[in-house]
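Supplementary Methods S3. Input chains for the assembly prediction are listed below.
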Amino acid sequence: MPQPVISVRGLGKSFQRAGKTVVAIRNFDLTVEEGEFIAIVGPSGCGKSTFLHMLGGFESVSEGELLLDGKPVLAPGPDRGMVFQEFALFPWRTVAENVTWGLEAQGKNKKECRAIADQLLAMIGLAQFRDHYPAELSGGMKQRVAIARTLAYDPRILLMDEPFGSLDAQNRELMQEELQAIWNDTRKTVIFITHDIEEAIYLADRVIVFTARPGRTKAELRIDLPRPRAIDVKKLNTFLEYRNRAWDLLRDEVLAARKEFA
Amino acid sequence: MARLVNWGLGLLLPAALIVLWQYEGWRNALPRYLPMPSVIADQWLEMLYSGELFVHAGRSLFRALTGFVIGSMFGLALGLAAAALRPIEDFCEPLISLTYPIPKIAALPIIFAWFGLGDESKVIIIAVSVFYPLYVATFAGAKVTTREHIWAARNMGAGRWRIVMHVLLPSALPQIFNGLRVGLALSFVVMFVAELVSSSQGLGYLITFAQDNERFDLMFVAIVTIGIFGFIADRLLLVVRRSFLAGYLPAAERQ
Amino acid sequence: MTVPQPIRHFLLRSYPIIVLLVLYEMMTRFGLVSQRLLPSLVLIARQLWRGLENGDLVHHTSVTLYRTGFGFSLALVGGVVIGFAMAQSRLAEKLIDPIFTFGYPIPKIALYPAIVLLLGLGSRSTIALVFLECIYPIAIHVHAGVRSVNRSLVWAARSMGASRARIFARVLVPASLPFLFTGLRIALPLALIVTIVTEIIGESEGLGYYITFSSASFEYARALAAFVVVGVVGFCLDRALIYAGGRIVFWQKSISIME
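Predicted structure tokens for the full assembly:
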């Protein structure tokens, strides 16, 4: 039995905010196998992003253990590619230069970079924008560039923090399909955070429902829909069943989260 | 068409002032020490042709720009270092914020006494003065680099040096240019003052000479020249800035 | 037992200064630098005390403060008036704004000799120069401040039946205050600098003059003592302004010098 890629046990994380201690995550457990697509849904502020940041190596562990291949996560690295909610593209570099930034950081030469950039830009359909600056792109286009940038250096694991959050409904669906296609080809391990239950079910092998703060697993749904999934899988009855179950689980947490902030 | 009107309106007040000035001079109603604009222009052109203007202006320019470059380099380097490394920030910040409101120019007489009245002292005081706005601007600009940008860079395997040079520095560039603008204007001011206090050549010297010899036309020539310098230098900087920040932040286009 | 936060904070902030002062003192004590050029801190302190005692320093400081304050106040009034005029009237903006954008990089100090010719040596020219120098940042910031007032705020006020005057006083003025204070924070050090500069160039009173005179007579300890006073004055003025700003513009967290 191969060792799980990611192993989380009793994970806890607290912050100091204005003199008070805020517990973002408590007692969180999760195991992820290589090549799995995991989606995490939960109410706002429940700690999902924090968990991703910890996986990425940007935030430290307060309690419990967070293991990658059996070893604790200590620092960020190109093996866990992160796609940020706010894109985090470098405004002073062109689209093409943004895509190859990670490659340059790892010392690849110009020619290799160019080739990879061309390939990725063609794949995301932005080849003619290669010399434009991020400021000139729409939200959807920026997001595609952000994803391309992360894919460029071929990380083993993809960490995606509500990557389609700033897109309008139409672009969202298109991006979901594209991501599906990419994942089908590459079969990377993906941890994907989203608010959108349907999105989660469509994309993932397993959907983790997070509780309100302090966050931990409320429930885990194994999605047994066949792959590859066409977008109209969303109309299937099985899909709707999953959706309803997930929403029932989530609804309580959303209400609980609301109360906390009320 | 609207553009032309705007231009015209903008020049209205200064032009009116100059016309009035000239008129009063023509009527011989000006005080002794206030030459007519035409007289000033004459003298200016004469000094230009004779090359004298170049001698003085060149000297002044040399001092100002040398001090500017030195001060900027130090300010930029230290600002970046402080933004990147906590210990440096902890050391520099209290010192800088304490000494920031002190007019560095108050040290001028002391510097002169220590290092003599030559060019070195002037360049030193200019550099020290320019250092401050550059440090403050670079530090502030680099410090507000978005967290996600730094995380993205680390995520992609960038080492510390790369993060400083390829993330902090570009991020801070708009702010750095603001600092450069302030520093450039400041270098002219400090140069001018230093020369007024003591020098043997240069635009400031020209003024003291003019005052001593009641050559008020010379005095105004110097004043006008330094005004022109300050203005041109600023415009040049804006051009440089535009090319550096092209497409980068379209909002930063108009200051 | 851990050191309490405020004390720890204070130590962290002040240790660089203390380190430098100690280094300085050691340099002069151990004769690494000529004692004449760099007097020991003790000597400086002594001159500082003496100057305060016999009233010299006090007199010159008050002259400097008077000029700085008066010029600054005039610039404040002028800057606010011009700034508002530019924001409220397109014509005024078109007439005046170019003067500001083009005049900005011209060292106003270059005009000082001309001003002296007109107004003679003494406080008047200094105040005039301070006025000219400081009016720029103040007017620019007030202009930006009034312009920045969210149109929806004004519309909201009008739909609630507010008159023009009321909108002016209750909406435009408060909304532009933070900008005004940023401008003031930039202008105040300028006022002090300009005053000191004019005193160095050719005055017979004031801290700038005191420093020049002392340096010329090789009394470096006195010059440095005056320099310290300048620093303290500048620092206190800045703090006073921050405090006043915090009270008057209470709804904003902090007034930053970089906008």
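The mean pLDDT of chain A is 87. Strands of chain A lie at 6-17, 20-32, 37-41, 63-68, 71-72, 80-83, 157-161, 189-194, 206-210, 217-222.
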